[in-house]
Amino acid sequence: MAESEQGLNSHYAVHWQEEGVYYPRPEFIGQANCTDPDIFERFSLDNFPECFKEFGDLLDWDQYWHTTLDTSEAPVWKWFVGGRLNASYNCVDRHLAKYKNKTAIHFVPELEEEPIVHMTYQELYRRVNETAAVLQDFCGLKAGDRVTLYLPMTPELPITMLACARLGIIHCQVFAGFSGKACGDRIWDSESEVLITMDAYYRSGKLLNHKANSDEAVAAAEKQGQKVKKVLVWRRYPGTYSSSTDMVEGRDFFADELMQKYKNAEVPPVSMPAEGILFLMYTSGSTGRPKGCQHSIGGYLSYVTWMSKYVQDIHPEDVYWCMADIGWITGHSFIVYGPLALAASTVIYEGVPTYPDPGRCWRIAEELDVNIFHTSPTAIRALRKVGGDEPAKYNYHFKHMTTVGEPIEPEVWRWYYEVVGRGKAVVVDTWWQTETGGFLCSTIPALQPMKPGSAGPGLPGIHPIVYDDDGNEIPPGAGKAGNLCVQNPWPGAFQTIWKDKERYIKSYYGKYCKNPQSTDWRDWPYMAGDAAVMAEDGYVRILGRIDDVINVSGHRLGTKEIESAALSAVEVAEAAVVAVPDEIKGTVPDLYVSLKPGYEATTELAKKVSDAVSDVLGKIAKPGHVYIVPDMPKTRSGKIMRRILASISSYNDVGDVTTLANPEIVEEIRHMVQG
After folding, report:
1. What is the pTM for the complete model shown?
2. Strand (E) positions, 559-664?
3. Exposure string (b/e) for 208-229, b if CB count within 10 Å is 16 or more?
4. What separation in angstroms does the CA of 239 have from each of 131, 157, 164, 261, 606?
5. Residue 343 contacts by C-beta under 8 Å, 6 or more apart in sequence?
6. Cβ(212)–Cβ(243) under 8 Å?
7. 364 in Cβ contact with 316 (< 8 Å)
8. pLDDT in tens, 413-441
């Protein structure tokens, strides 16, 4: 193979320009939890792994650990071995002496006429204990058993998670927006005999019949050989059944009714080994058997607590709102476990951020005096699209804002910073994954400047590196992207894929492993599966999944770059790029865009967007077509389904679209593209 060809295969050029930096304000630095510049030296590879003692020391332990990191079964890492603790105790009980009357959870129902519920730590303690008593006595569950939760965004979800953790039961929460079949697959894979669900919940003003989906889940699991013996059904309105689907006698029980029999029960927290399993979190969008990421108790909890304190800058007096869903890892780590371990007040909002209008989230922020706001680029783009001027109408004061889940385009970042944060709040752009448990790359907000579109450098104790396909390091500042890896293990990393260690090793450690027999952590770099470029200053810019690369005439282009270039046109609210086969170039990008309110789709505008891409990235990135669509096909969590757009562009079958939030848009787009 010619040298130039090999180079094309092992990395791809990056056309994005480096952005300028923004510095945190003195007012933020003055109150920040982390202002010590020596922290990076303390967490250098020379001090690994003992440096992570600082993470473990944020928790209360029943028994201290004797080994910080056990590598004997590399790359199945075991953290804080010999230590024993309980996650529920650390999130609830230990705060009672000082904070029992402080709000633990602010629950905001979707319907504005329903009052916000402010649950204190004392009340949370009571409800967690009563739920644990039901799980233990009525369901007969014990440490190590698995329970599937299929719950929406209501307080019953964290209560049930913490009740499971109290007993050492492994919980597996399935996003309520997933289909019954998807939930059934996870019941089957985790071998759960108990399902905990809810009769109904609100979404866009409609009370959805969730019990019907739960019955589908039980049937789907049974079809695969996993029988659910008990289904506990929380009622959205206690005492009133809001579903039209019948309860099944002998199998289904109202959870709120059962609790009455265990009023004021107290269940001692079970002392669990640090390397015991806290929960399974199934990654979305996987093909074949669901992929259950197995997270530990001690390592995971210490990691998300440290990240919540020092990256999110959460103090006990803060009101913190992570606008994710607890059904995803973001919600586990940064709505439930991290904030509650710090005695924070965490907000749980039931519905969509634009219901009944685009001002809803800013009204919530104003009413609760939220000062830390955490959301995803998907939500930021949606809020910018439908209500770009809304934030200015409300009197809230954010000191800190986070973006998480996918790369954020610089243009969108600037709107978030200037309009939502009013140029006063720091913005923390974090890179991490379901598998990593918590953040890997980000700025420490009081110590490092912000750079739009860049996640930031590796966090203390995290040492990222970019490799080409042949395992050669691409040095910082080279202007070339490759495979983003982490050189060392960290406590938040998942332990393995549930019941599939071989797949775990092959998928995450196989490509760059230097010696498969080694128990030396240096031989096992973690491969994230994301393409990235590292700037000279160590800041990492994520370009999307390695698979999200379009090879146009031998030039490999990151889809994220093209989408970001499209968003530089002021009219564009959202952009999605898909690869389409081309006889001459091999592949060309098709670009789908939706517009901000007040703009109309015209051929002139389509040309303007196409030219914007060419101006920013060069003519090689020019889209084959620009389609201006009324809306993008989206999942219930708001993610654009590029797979469907790719099928439309390639004249292939779009498959099942019934689980989309807006299935009707698919036919409209198909008609527009295919005629």
Report:
1. 0.86
2. 572-582, 586-595, 625-628
3. bebbebbbbbbebbeeeebebe
4. 17, 18, 24, 14, 55
5. 95, 98, 99, 102, 104, 121, 316
6. yes
7. no
8. 999 999 999 999 999 999 999 999 999 99
